[in-house]
Amino acid sequence: MSTKDDELLKELEQEEYKYGFTTDIEMDIAPKGLNEDTIRLISAKKNEPEWLLEWRLKAFRHFLTLKMPTWQNFRNPDVDFQGISYYAAPKPKKQLESLDEVDPELLETFAKLGIPLDEQKVLAGVVAVDAVFDSVSVKTTFREKLKEKGVIFCSFGEAVQEHPELVKEYLGTVVPQTDNIYAALNSAVFSDGSFVYIPKGVHCPMELSTYFRINAENTGQFERTLIIADEGSYVSYLEGCTAPMRDENQLHAAVVELIAMKDAEIKYSTVQNWYPGDKDGKGGIYNFVTKRGICKGDNSKISWTQVETGSAITWKYPGVILRGDNSVGEFYSVAMTRNMQVADTGTKMIHLGKNTRSKIISKGISAGKSHNSYRGLVKIGPNADNSRNFTQCDSLLIGDRCGAHTFPYIESRNKTAKLEHEATTSKIGEDQVFYLNQRGIDSEKAVGLIVNGYAKEVLNQLPMEFAVEAQKLLAISLEGSVG
Amino acid sequence: MSGLITNNMSTIVASSLFQQLTSAYQEVETTNESSLLKSLRQGAYAHFEQAGFPTVKHEDWKYTNIHHLVNKTYVLNAEVDIANLDLSKADIPGLDAHRIVLVNGQYVLAFSSLDDEVGVVVKSIQEAVEEIHFQKHFAQHADKTGSAMVALNTALYTSGIYLSVPKNKVVSKPIQIVHIATGDQEFFAQTRNLYILEANAEAEIIESFITLDNTASNLHNKVTEIVLDENAKLQHYYLQLASDTGSYINHTEVYQTKHSLYNNYNCNFPGVAFVRNDINVRLDAENVESHLYGVNLLADKQLVDNHTIVDHMKPHCESYEWYKNIPQDEATAVFNGKIFVREDAQKTNAFQQNNNMLIGDKSAVYTKPQLEIFADDVKCSHGCTMGQFDEDALFYLRARGIGEESARVLLVHAFAFDVTSRFSNDAVRAYVEDLVAKGLEE
């Protein structure tokens, strides 16, 4: 009996973070340190045009003038910007023509992660994947099929080479280099990322997906995603992330920019499962991400959905600027923290156009000694007549050492606007757990069930494949936090 | 009882209030004060000097710019003729109350009456230094917030009152405290109050702020510390009726112990140019209850900023907060409500609601209802809405022959009713409802 228990326990321990392996691949890593030479090196490695190098340097010079913000209600980590390597790419770095040329170790890694890189095997699949390993995009699948429709889906580096006019026109228009310290850092040193362009009137035939993986030690990952949906188009984009278990903290500072033209719709989903650190708060990823979309044209729509279970500290506020009339912004979020994790997340909805609508549903679950905050802004400009916002943020507390916080900023300068905001914080319902216990469901499963029900409103927004994964993630994260 | 009120500070030629205050402090330092006060003032001044006046870069002052208020000079020791004080502006019909009168913060005994209340002590704050409660509580609560404006007040307050209600005493009538601003020179007044309710004491305090006619522009930095002992109950009203020459920065810090009850009713009306209220309640024992209510009807270019903190420090406490803002014209209403539930403050019930009705074309509302919760067995919620007149309701009323104007007044009344219906004093409720109706007509 006891040996079986031990086995089970062992299994559980491994379950704790099953993506915690590293992959032995020869890497091309830039020396540690941050200075103009590093940026020139990255730019040269990527064979970038002169204007992009200048753009990076401008961001870097601005970065140097910035101080770390101090408004958080958690301990601000000291990030040693000089102790990080800003470029790591799998070797050999040559043009990858087909899957055969990709390092087999790498393929194995992605297989472990469950990413179907092998096009042969997933012909029946409906997802096109761009896999980003450390800083460099390794492989983008289904490109030919997408090309037929005129959809551009490639790594950021390729986009710079092949579609410089698009990149130049839109890069930094939603998240300027000067937006915040991490956006400035990203603008200076970003190494790769994904680029999507959906032409006029095209309904993207499949879900587009990026998988991010930090592998090498002492590296930071700084990717940049740019999605442009031209008039009347539609795209659904998924993003997933994992990292190996390491004792030191690693930095992930990404920038995502979405641009929706007239009548276009972008749906952006994230399942974030970076390594959260161990139960004493050692190690883990600092996930400091700037994500923002703009509804440029009338009747456009941007929808963010996120499931956040990983990272030592998550710090992100996907926002929507509702500039076009009748445009719609949505934000659905489930953030689950445990042990010593901190999640400070929320959204910004900036209403500028008339009849603009936004909806915010945020569900926080804190367990252990973790802290979970909703921090958001809803702003109604003077010209945003008849705009509408609904916000709901609920927090669920499991254990008496965790915290749940709400910091909503609500600003209205238009009398025709209607806004509603509600937030509740409560403990997991004892009577609900009792009800399930009575029916033979143990406490741990009961809590899992309740949490899944609680998060359902958000999980329903995810595409099928992701919803299943997200549900499993929530269940795993809950393990050991009950009792 | 005619005469002049002065204090011992002289006016110094300076280009900004900050410089004036620096010189004023140097003068205060040389006076003969108790060592307790001296060290308190010293520490507070050092803090203020280092922090300076808050700017919009401070998170707590993000929407409230006081630059235009502190960027000029004032008379710090305004002389006041109290021969012909007209207190009629503070009259509340049907209210039978004791009255305490403060002119620019100075306690005027001649106009005040508190007869038959055995054991209740009211005196100017300067004369209260020997009081045991003063020595125990003065500057022990508000100053902990680290606010630069409180520090400035501690360092340089020149007026105010000390009020204490003894054990088991239930004050028979409400106490109305009338704050009068008057003077033909632009002045800056720093008032410091300390109210103590001993165990089982009960009182109702109504504070009215009025401005006499032809008063030059005036700025007030007022701090009130309130201590409620075991089982004490305090009903506390703020009725802001000052005219557009007045600007007020008020800090109220309430410290509650076991089984005590504190209710605050904060009402602001058209007139006063600028109001910043900080109302903080610390629930530092079990079974404490606090209610904070607010009705803010604003007009013209008024800015009224209400910041509240409800700090649940111990288990089994309850708090309830409801603020209603109705900005008209180009007025700005700011609400910032914070609820803290500290670790171990289990079984806390905290409720907070903020409703806004924007009437003015250029009016604005900035609101930030916050929860910071560090315990799990709690029930906390907050809600916030912003909207306009309900067109359907308006139509319904008009269809029944009610003119548009009256229909609107009726709807605003209904909007404010959630809060006004909770007033403990009927006379004050009727008075406030009347002021809301008048404020809408203008």
Please, could you describe this protein's structure?
The complex is a heterodimer of chains A (483) and B (442). Chain A has 483 residues and is of the alpha/beta class. Helices cover 25% and strands 35% of the residues of chain A. Chain A has helices spanning 2-15, 36-45, 50-65, 104-113, 143-149, 156-162, 164-170, 181-189, 430-438, 443-459, 464-478, and strands at residues 27-29, 88-90, 127-133, 136-140, 152-155, 192-198, 207-213, 223-229, 234-242, 249-252, 255-260, 265-272, 284-295, 301-308, 313-316, 319-322, 328-337, 342-345, 348-351, 357-367, 371-380, 388-398, 403-412, 418-427. A ten-stranded mixed beta sheet of chain A has the order 4-3-7-9-12-14-17-20-22-24, with helices on one face. In chain A, strands 13-15-18-21-19-16 form a six-stranded parallel β-barrel. In chain A, strands 1-2 form a two-stranded antiparallel sheet. Mean pLDDT of chain A is 79; it is low at 92-99 and 116-126. By secondary structure, chain B is α/β, with parallel strands linked by helices. Chain B has eight helices and 21 strands. Chain B is globular. Chain B starts with a strand and ends with a helix. Chain A binds chain B through residues 71, 73, 380, 382, 395, 397-427, and chain B through 59, 343-344, 346, 356, 358-388. Strand 23 (403-412) of chain A pairs antiparallel with strand 20 (364-373) of chain B.
